[in-house]
Amino acid sequence: MLTGIQVCDGACDPNVRMEPAEATINGMFTRGTRGTHTQGVKIQALNLVIGDALVVTYQQVVTSSMSYTADCLIKKTGGEDDKGNDLDYLVCTVPPGVGAGLRWSVMMGGEKVATSENLETSYAAPMVSAITGPNSLTESLPMSTAGGQTIELTGTNLGFEGMDLNLVQVHYGFSSEMDGEMDASDFEMLPFVGKVQSSGVQDDELLVTTGPGYGQKLSVYVRVGGQVSAVPAADMLEYAAPTVQGVAVPAGASHMLSTLDSAGG
Amino acid sequence: MITGSNFGPLLGVDDRAMLPMVTYGTRPSTIPGLGNTEDHEYVQDVTCTKDAATAHTKLTCTTGAGVGRDHKVKVAMPGEAVSSMTLESTPSSQMLSYVPPVITRVFGPGSMNAATSGGDLVEIDGQHFGPVAMNAIEVVRFGLPTEFPSGAGLYEMD
Lengths: 265, 158
Fold this sequence. Notes:
The complex is a heterodimer.
Chain A: E1 2-9, E2 27-29, E3 39-46, E4 54-60, E5 67-80, E6 86-93, E7 102-108, E8 111-123, E9 127-132, E10 150-156, E11 168-174, H1 184-189, E12 192-202, E13 205-209, E14 218-224, E15 227-228, E16 243-247, E17 256-258
Parallel strand pairs in A: 2-8
Antiparallel strand pairs in A: 1-3, 3-6, 4-5, 4-7, 5-6, 7-8, 9-10, 10-13, 11-12, 11-14, 12-13, 14-15
Chain B: E1 2-5, E2 21-25, E3 42-43, E4 47-49, E5 58-62, E6 71-76, E7 95-98, E8 102-107, E9 123-127, E10 140-142, E11 155-157
Antiparallel strand pairs in B: 1-5, 2-3, 2-6, 4-5, 6-7, 8-9, 10-11
């Protein structure tokens, strides 16, 4: 039985006893999607047996697409709970990941021995800090309404290399219509969609192909592992203004003439 | 038909708020004494459609009622319905003109042996005089055929 989860800044110190309050909070991996950052998790459990093959996994309940395996060791504390159970710790290092509401399971000897029914951890939500590329307001080149151009988003917790691209989306819409923090339902209502490029995902960078759209002062939001960036980047996107190259009246039109062959009136 | 670029995607067939707004400007009058020297405001009585395959580059539009020649065309992306901010093209170099008016019949008491003091009614039948609401008739003149090229000696009707 898992009775507590503590997310550590760096590797967890197994010698520091978890306080009771930490046994019930939801842990947040503050830099969780960054593969090079050391992030530990300490799990309080009962009656673990050193020596058994240990597999610790955690995943979202609603979808198995966000499922991870942590690298864990058992630390026997020698203590007991008030019912006489051995009070042990699992000290784990988590891999890069995304998502919120991740519940934990411990397998020992091929058998599931413990799960966290109410204890969840989350990777940090994404944030976009800047946009560069041919189409942002910081650049001079126009963005075609047909899309197909590359922009680069920089920020934090944007994902990790090799991740499932279905778990990262980029939407954008008119900044004048944004009111307050973005949430999941509002995100779906944003009218324009960029496509994250394969091999274009890192913790601090997304390469995105613009989609069809129009307008100016477009605020960009991302959703990574189901978590939406609450506020847009200061940089905004702008599609090019339309240009008129030709005006023609079909042959046989009875009330208008093309100037080229019109006597006018 | 208007061709160009960056007319935007076809987001909703039935949602006119998503279509670009096409306007064209009336040409200043060239009639002596009646000429407006500034480009007029752009009329907006134009309905357009587009299809998905050529949405970004082609608009097929139906003109509104009007008169005049050398109308320059502008395309603006929507629009207050979507945003308070719009992107608008520069006026087209190619222009449109309505067909000139045609007189098919002149009749009425003043059409023959009119009083030299004036005041007789003359009726004119024809086509392309413009919509009533626009009150587009700038001037009606009459005179000898030889006088029309220069305009000298022509009379104006009220």
